[in-house]
Each structure stands twice: as structure tokens, then as C-alpha cells.
Amino acid sequence: MKKAKKTKKKVMTKVRKKAAKKSAAGAAKPRALLKILPIFPVLALSKKAKYPKFEFKIEKEHALIQFPEGKDVDFTYTIIPDFVKARVHYERREARYDIIEPELSEAEKEIYEKLTNAFLEVVDVELNAIRNTEKLIPYLEETIQKVALSLDIKLNEAQFKKIFYYIWRNFVGLNEIEPLLQDIYIEDISCDGVGIPIFIVHRKYGELKTNIVFNDKKKLEDFIMKMAERCGRYISYAEPLLDATLPDGSRVQATYASDVTTRGPSFTIRKFREVPYSPVEIMELGTASPELLAYLWLAIENGASILIAGGTGTGKTSFLNALSLFIRPHAKIITIEDTRELQLPHENWIASVTRTGFAGEYGEITLFDLLKESFRQSPDYVIVGEVRGKEAYVLFQGMASGIPALGTMHAGRVEDVIYRLQTPPIELSPALLETLDVIALLTHAHEIGPSARRVREVTEIEAVDPSTNKARTNIAFSWIAADDSFSQREYSWLLQKISQLKGLTIDELREDIAQRAALLKWAQKKGIRNYKDFANLIAEFYHDRAALMKKVMK
After folding, report:
1. Mean pLDDT for each 10-residue chunk of the chain (554 residues)?
2. What is the pLDDT of residue 24?
3. CA 506 to chain centre
4. Each residue of 38-52: pLDDT tens digit?
5. Is-contact 403 397, C-beta < 8 A?
6. How many other C-beta atoms lie within 10 A of the C-beta of residue 538?
């Protein structure tokens, strides 16, 4: 027995020496693997693992699921094929959203614990700090397979896939909420504290309670710490507030201390859409009519400045992104945001984001700074994610100098938009306020559906009386809730303005809008929904409008 142990010891010593020699000679070994060898020397003798390659496809495009209607809905759909499903149903007259994941037996749970504990002993990178998680999966898979072999853990294909799913979810993903992040139909994720179910905002069913709960305060604190590290930020009891962006672009607001949020640590995630809405999808959602979008398209083409207003969660940024696709393909665009949300297909596009300072305000880059610099770069269009403070004054000065702009603002009524622009901290003069051409007001349309949004009205700013500061406005379009339709008014101040600039009659401009609306309907019929495909259609429109319209009118 002793002799056998000595022989094994000699073999292991040779393996270690051989590995060290190869490393010194410049052998291409990952650092993590060299670190594993002294702890699991049998790895050097093992052949490549026979476990299947772990892979799954998460559909980032907008899958066209036909969600059922009604209060008795009980519907299940796939989030990650073979691994995760979502069930939307009613329980005790309450709408619920349940995540269904693979179940692990007690034996499989023990194996999971063994594998993860051994993995943490040998891993030589800070996993939470890795922002590009796609690069982490192959490294994680290879290391786990080798650790499993070293511990003589035998798993069949189904077991390996299940266990590795949870390893992927908890190391690469964001633990229990990772399935929510992968569901393209979820817009917001909200945790209000310890022992409280997480709530989501579903694109079809609105606000739903989930079956995910953080029952342990320490576990929730650790999760928020992990989320902060993924954002490249820091959160603690001394600095308990987090406002940051996840690597995928999702916005995170979190609190860490119970004396700040008394029900325990909390977080809200506003999910980032990798594939933004196109105008065709905006039409399909019923948010706006083809004629309304065609009118705004003509306005943008003629250098109109537009503010998109609405309450929280009314889809202002999504609508802004969709409108930006109407800007000419080769126009120079500068976008300015607190967190990156806008996605444009234009090549001549500068995407600017603010930056938090280091040790106070040192190194801080604000919206004001970015706007001031943007107008020195001769853009054709400036797009501001949200207009809210003193930077608006710079924006309107740029508009007065002839550079059109698009932006969003939190406001429930057109009157509120004008009032906010005229009062501190913005305080625009009547002359500057007149540079704004159009306000598109979005609203929740709960009469239509729990998550429906509509453009309630499109208002033109004709003039501002300098003696009273009152704006003279004209409603160009309005939404009629009774039959969920859009009404277009006969008179349009903006069309009168374009008519004078272009030397065209009002009838000719209305015919132009009708043609653009026909093109949008044709694009919908042809299934041109993806924003890049739609951008190609707009490029074709500006390259040879006559030829394209000939196809449309066939």
C-alpha cells in the first residue's frame, strides 16, 4: 500500500515538473490551468472531457409570440430553449409570472456545490468584474469539466447540462434574475426589499408578480454588490446608492442600506433593448398611425425640432429611437445621454454619454459639457436622451443657430412641457422657446391593454407671446380613445411653414405625407420590422424615391 502511494506521488511530481517546464518554455497554457495543476494533478493525465458542449441560443430579435387575451390566461413560452420557460397565469385573481427552470435532485445539488466550491478554489480571475460575459463561458466550461474529472464526478448528458446551466446562471449571469434579463418581453425588473416577490413590467401583460424572492438579507446585499461590480461601480453602507449601467446597457438603480430603504436593500432594472423598435413595430403596437409617423418624418426631413414628452414608462426613448431612423442615412448625428440607450444604424453617428466624477466632481462629464461640445462639431441633428436641467438652455441655443434637435422630457401634458421650459432651472426666453416646433405627447392606454401606449397628441408650437409668456399652439394629431384611432386636423402650422420654405402648396405636402404613409404600410405588409432593414428602406427612399414608390404602388 505504501509502495503504491510512493509510486503515485512520484508520478504527480513528474506531472507538476513537466507542466512547469512547458510553461517556462512558453507553452500556451491559460494561467488558470497552471493554477489548477498543483491542486488537481490528475488533470494533467486526463483526456479531454467527454461532456457535451454547453450552448444555447437566446433570441434577441422580437419573436412574434401571439399572446392570449383575457383574465383567465394561462400561457407558457420559452425563454432559453431546453432550460427556461415563463408561465403567465392568474392565481387568486392576481396576475403572476413564474420562471420554470430545470429541477436538481438532492444528489445533483451536492454535485453542484462540490463543483462550484472546487472551481472557486482554482479560479484566478474576479468573475464579478468581467463585463464581457460571452468570453467567460468557454473558460468556465473547460475549467468545470476538468474539475469534474479530477473529482471523479460522473454525469450523464442531461445531468451535466442541468448543473452547468446553474453554474452559468450564477457565475456568468445575475443569479435568480438572469432568466428575467433574458426574456425579451420584460421591460422593467423591480425588487422592493427582503421577502418581497420581484415584480416585472411585461410588454403584453403589464405589471406582474414573479415567483422570485430574496428571503435572506445577506443574500440580497451580496447580489446588489455583485450587480454593482458588473457595472464597474462601488456600493456600500457609506455610499448606499447606485445609479449605473449593466454591460448589456440596462439601467440599474439600487439601494444597499436598510436605513435608506426600510424594507431592505432594493433595486430596479430598466432593461436595454438590443434591437430597438422600428417605426413599423411602433405602428403594429398601435402607438402611432402611419399618417402620424409620416407627418413626423416630413418634419424631421425639413429640420424640425421635436420633443417627445410623457410620464414614466410611456415609451419615450423607444419612440425617439424609432423617429431617429427617419434621419437621412449620411447625416451627422450626435446623441447625448446619461446612460446609453439609443441605437442608430447611421455610420456618421457620435454616441456620447455622461461620466461620473472621481473623488467628487473631478473628471465629471455632464450633459451640459457634452451639449456645449456637440454644437462645435457641426452636426446635422443632435439627439438628447432626456432634457431636464440647465443643459436645455444650451440645446435651445443650438436650435436657434439652425441645428435641429430631438429629445425627451418627463411631463404629463403639453402645458407642463412649456411651463418646465420657461421656469428654473431652464428658464427659456420666448424667442428660444419658439425654436421648438413639435411636442409629441405619449401616454399609457390602459383602456386598450395593460402595457399599451399611445401618442395622445402631436402639438405644434406656433409662437410665444413675449408679454405674457403664453404659447400659441396647434394640435396636428390626437388620439381618440373611444375607437383607438388617430385624428388629423385640417390646419397645420408646420405644413404652412414648410410650404413657405419649400415653395410647395399645402395639398402637395399632404400628398407627400400620404405617399410616406403608404410606404410605411407597404413595409409592414412586407415584414420590414427590423430597425436595420428599415434603415435600408429609408436609404433606398432617398437614393431613388420614384423607383421605390413605383414598387409600393403596384
Report:
1. 45 40 36 34 39 58 63 88 93 91 95 90 65 68 83 86 91 93 94 97 92 96 94 90 89 91 94 91 97 99 98 94 98 93 96 77 85 94 93 93 96 96 94 97 92 96 94 97 96 97 97 98 96 98 97 92
2. 37
3. 40
4. 333 333 333 444 565
5. no
6. 21
**40 grid coordinates:** 488537481
Residues 6 or more apart in contact with residue 360 via CB below 8 angstroms: none
CA angle (274 as vertex; 269, 280 as ends), nearest 5: 115
Which parts of 401-527 fold into alpha helices (H)? 414-422, 430-433, 493-502, 506-525
| Cross-strand pairs, 197 | 213
Examine residue 425 and say whether the peptide bond preceding it is cis (omega within 30 degrees of 0). yes
Distance CA 205, CA 3 (A): 70
C-alpha cell recorded at residue 32: 488558470
Of 278, 325, 336, 335, nearest to 300 by C-alpha is 325
Q: Residue 394 contacts by C-beta under 8 Å, 6 or more apart in sequence?
A: 368, 371, 372, 375
Q: Identify the CA nearest to 257 among candidates 188, 193, 189.
A: 193
* C-alpha cell recorded at residue 15: 506531472
Please give the Cα distance from 168 to 128 (Å, whole number): 13
Three-class SS state of 414: helix
Q: Report the distance separating Cα 88 and Cα 463, nearest Å.
A: 50
Distances (CA, A) of 443 to 67, 303, 450, 478: 22, 25, 12, 12
Give the chain's domains with CATH numbers. Answer: 106-270 (3.30.450.380), 279-553 (3.40.50.300)
pLDDT score at 408: 97
pTM for this model (two decimals):
0.81
| Cα separation, 509 vs 410, whole angstroms | 31
- C-beta of residue 14 within 8 angstroms of C-beta of residue 121: no
Residue 150: closest CA among 172, 123, 119, 125: 119
The cell for 546 is 420614384
Count of all residues that appear for the chain in the document: 554
Grid look-up 417605426 returns: 279
